Please model this.
Amino acid sequence: MLNDLSQAPLLSVRNLTKHYGERLGCADVSFDIYEGEVLAVVGESGSGKSTLLGLLATELEASAGSVRYRMRDGVTRDMASLTEAERRLLLRTDWGFVRQDSTQGLRMSVSAGGNIGERLMAVGARHYGKIRGQALDWLERVEIDRGRIDDIPKAFSGGMRQRLQIARNLVTHPRLVFMDEPTSGLDVSVQARLLDLIRSLVSELGLAVIIVTHDLAVARLLSHRIMVMKGGRVIEAGLTDRVLDDPHAPYTQLLVSSVLAA
Amino acid sequence: MMTRASTDAAPEAGYNFAYLDEQTKRMIRRAILKAIAIPGYQVPFASREMPMPYGWGTGGVQVTASILGGDDILKVIDQGSDDTTNAVSIRKFFERTAGIRTTTHTREATVIQTRHRIPEETLQEGQVIVYQVPIPEPLRFLEPRETETRKLHALAEYGLMHVKLYEDIARHGHIATTYAYPVEVAGRYIMDPSPTPKFDNPKMHRMAALQLFGAGREKRIYAVPPYTEVRSLDFEDHPFHIQTFKDPCAICAATGVYLDEVIMDDRGGRMFVCSDSDFCEERRACGHRGSMLAEAPAALTGGNTHA
Model:
């Protein structure tokens, strides 16, 4: 379901590097991602996955390299050149971020409806009935019972919290969503349903997704392309099936063979 | 009671006029000027220790001390009343340290320091109302980080404020915030009007008097210049409403004013009376009679309590 490749990429990353003092976070990462495309970043703990995601989402400042994004008006801009106001507007409208730890991605003491409505209110929605209508609609789309709209996320299970995070992010119809280990810590049946949901939303909405995971099965199920990281560097990249079925780099071979029936 | 003539004795010896030293007053005046220039913006200032505990109006007292002149006539109210402890002690404080005249009449005062109310009587040009503010940051309970709330103000990112109102409606069916109801000032900054009842919010809109806000513990001063737009936040389908009261004031029969509930006995007896004691007294002086005036205790109808 890759889109028209003649168009410029949605996000274009070149030689992205991050040092934490002496230590290396990640080095020399380059890739392009187009609308409707899912890119998985895999690797073991400490391989630089989360650093990379932090850099892309402008939460960390890069030591070198560039991240360029094609805005809704068609103009591709360097993220470092955006003003603070532009950057934050982008983050809460055109981008989404689903976090591993739902307590960081949700307002835990605000009801599910308020969590979903926050982005709408941030861009100027001022009609309670309409905001609530959209919240109900999104609860349904992420398969949470409509009756839970006034419950706070503290009363939700882990899987429901992740689905609520997804609804909260997608309500403004972003074009690019970052996901940091969205399924970790969930039991396998809940994981399967969540993956199923993400997959159908991605294809339905034509989202571009960059998903960080250490779980090759997740990468296999969701992503079109995959990047394998080790020690802060990308050691192998390509179509998901090619990389997982025919890994070239020794480390990737090790990774693939260490998983039971991936 | 009413107006007290210039204190017979000179201001207390050993203190500068209105307690604060002149350099401190200059510093506070600079903050006030900046606050007036940017309506609704919280200006940091070097708040001083005052001879009263935080929460008793240290911010308001410092603002008042900095703007008082020898000719000023000061009125101090606490919850609308001129004769509660806080009001009496602050009034005495300035009588002793500045030797200025004080009054209980809203119309007569040039400076009115208040906690929790705006007088019922419409304020006029040339008057200044000084609010005592406990927590100046309207976003505080939504976003605990000061660095982040400052950024939200700077970028006018106020969606969060509506999340709070949304939660109110979701939980209670209506906006249940009844005091410290957030307002937008001059179309720009969101401001906490201090814990006044939302009943008083419309009075702030295009008020002829200068409104100054002082938060001593939080070290912030902010202001609303005369005739500035002040809009209470709401939703299109849940517009802002002020409180209404079923019955008029029980002792002066006023309607359309803010009433306090007074418990009369331990058998459920109660009455609702004006929270603005000066307004109520003046009406009674003009011959207005509430339904329970005869039964009301002397403390309410004002005997000689303002000494």
